Automatic annotation (TrEMBL):
It comes from Qipengyuania citrea. SUPFAM superfamilies: P-loop containing nucleoside triphosphate hydrolases. This is ABC transporter ATP-binding protein. It comes from the Bacteria. Residues 5-234 form the ABC transporter domain. One of its GO terms (molecular function) is ATP binding.
Length: 313
């Protein structure tokens, strides 16, 4: 399947030499949810701005729906929606009017039934006559989503869509995103809440200092880079590890009462090895009183990638 969005060698250098994007290559497939993860200043918003026509790239190409955005941006732009990170909208406008106006900006005829459908899906219909300034922060963010959906885009950028909203509203946003995916909308999501990416994304990209460090299927990334960690509390402290225990990827923590295991590859190998380790402890006459095992989360992998600054092989 041809990509719905393709970036090749995309770079952006600002005055003073700040390189916000550094030779980024990325393909996004139709109908997927792609999560772009990175710390503040990593280049996420700059990348989105380049695709949406808000930032002029220094070099490289952007193709969306087969159109080169440098020469044929009008046709492509009409199929792209953006929910920005900042709450930038006319606060004095009533909700329904603001959303309808956004539809008209793309040359589409008025369609009150479609606007009603969007507002109802976002639990905004009862607020349609209220000025945006009177809404809560979470509702204002929903208005931004409604404005982005008003012209029925095929590709939607969500830049930190749940920033600053409470847990309940965040869960509501996740449900909205899931409905959009079900309608066939391709979604590119940036977020600080990595559990969002772990829950919803099909693929994940990690960006830092303008460089795209890694792009992979979420499940494949977790299988390839995930690890098992186990803390085994010993009944009696050890000064050194017997040879039969030292062959495992373990180390004694300070005091010698906790044995820490870190190994595996995210495919279940670690759990099997922890079971072998406990048998080896019993065989060596070492008693233990507790064991705590956990698997790496996507957040663990993300932190590890940023710490290394390199793409793992």
């Amino acid at each position: 399947m041809d990509p719905i969005l393709e970036l090749n060698g995309l770079s952006k250098v600002y005055r003073g030499g700040l390189k916000a994007l550094d030779n980024v290559d990325l393909s996004v497939r139709k109908g997927e949810i792609f999560a772009l993860l990175g710390p503040n200043g990593a280049g996420k918003t700059t990348l989105i701005g380049a695709v949406c026509g808000l930032v002029r790239p220094s070099s490289g190409t952007i193709h969306a729906f087969g159109h080169d955005l440098a020469t044929d941006w009008r046709k492509a732009r009409s199929r792209i929606g953006l929910v920005p990170q900042e709450l930038s909208t006319d606060m004095f406008e009533p909700v329904e009017h603001a959303v309808s106006y956004s539809r008209g900006l793309f040359g589409l005829a008025p369609d009150r039934q479609r606007i009603e459908e969007i507002l109802r899906s976002l639990s905004l219909w009862e607020k349609r006559g209220e000025r945006i300034m009177a809404l809560s922060g979470g509702m204002k963010r929903r208005v931004l989503i409604a404005k982005a959906l008003a012209h029925e885009p095929d590709l939607l950028f969500l830049d930190e869509p749940t920033a600053g909203v409470d847990v309940e509203l965040r869960k509501g946003m996740w449900a909205i995103i899931d409905k959009m995916r079900a309608r066939g909308v391709t979604i590119i999501l940036t977020t600080h809440y990595i559990e969002e990416a772990e829950m919803m994304a099909d693929r994940v990209g990690v960006i830092n200092r303008g460089k795209l460090l890694m792009v992979d299927e979420k499940d494949a990334m977790m299988a390839r880079l995930g690890r098992t960690e186990a803390h085994i509390t010993l009944a009696q402290p050890l000064a050194t590890l017997p040879p039969d225990i030292g062959r495992f990827p373990v180390e004694l923590e300070v005091g010698g009462t906790v044995l820490r295991y870190r190994g595996g590859d995210g495919t279940g190998k670690g759990k099997a090895e922890v079971a072998e380790l406990t048998k080896a402890l019993i065989g060596a006459g070492i008693d233990y009183v507790g064991i705590d095992t956990r698997e790496s989360s996507l957040e663990d992998i993300f932190v590890s990638l940023l710490g290394d600054g390199e793409v793992p092989q």
